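Journal club prep — side note

Before the paper discussion, L.F. wants everyone to see what a predicted structure for a comparable chain looks like in token form. Sequence:
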Amino acid sequence: MKFVIKHRLFISIVLFTLFFFLFFLYMDLREIMFLLHRDYKNNYIGGLFIHSWFFLIPMVVFFILMIVFTAFYMKKNKGMNKWITFSLTLFYELVFTFVYSLYALAPGFCFFPKAYAISISIDKVKEVEVFVEDTSYTSLYYDNDYNEVTLLFVGNAQNAKGVFHNIKDDLDTSKRNLLIMDYPMFGYNYGTLNEETIYKEVDQYMSFLIEQEGYSYKEIRICGFSIGTGVATYCASKYKDVESLILFAPYYTFSDAMNHLVNVFHGPLLGCVRFKFPSYSNALNITCPTIIYYSDGDKIIPMESTLKLIQCFKDCKAILIPNVSHNMVFYNKDLALSLLH
């Protein structure tokens, strides 16, 4: 009891911040990230969250309360106890704020959900809708009645409409249909942005291609770029009879990519990487021919991580594109060949 009385400031703030953390997890900041990347013309509530400084509110609240409580506490108390309590509180707040930021904001910072910001009209491109646990998800499908199809998983801050806009001139000479999947919170989609939901959405689109469109597995090619390569390896490892797998700028594990940007995700902090995407373990179960494009100039996905992943495949052709940026690994001269031929 004496310890509680002596360190009541520290204990009070610990309890408050834990409550605050649980409250924000209940609200689920993934939904707020969704609002942040939307068009707010018809959503005045979303306008409240339009500025990224909204995410600083929890940290600001923590530190203001810490200052207020500390000032009151130190005024009423004397001796070393108040300084010990203050130091413990400050240390706790710094650690908590750091971990909170990494974990709670991970879906948005990893994916940068992107709604449709452009309007395009391309002949033969239509919307395809699937359902995951009663939630509707929509993607775009180029259907020109070809016998083969490519299923593409995009990178962060991309969406199906943006990719179609960039390759529209190549569609006239295509030999394959193309389905580009939009993740939860991308394009027109709502839903929950987590790894489990993404995998379930993949399964629904594979079911659509097999059961509704009538493709055989040997007529389906799987492609992925950047963060989407983890999704692509999941798909190819589960549906082993697909024609082939093509990866642009893949990673060994998603934590490799995160550590390349902010090298802190080790030990217990690995738990803050909410998206695992274990490409290396998926690769061990992939039997289809695989092509990997990567670059020594990629500043997002470390080349060392890609090289480690290449060793995990049974049948893999690696193509180095020298000295190009991360996005140009995807938008390389062979892109149309990979997706549409």
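L.F.'s comment for the group: Residues 81 and 211 are 70 Å apart (CA to CA). Keep this in mind when we get to the figures.
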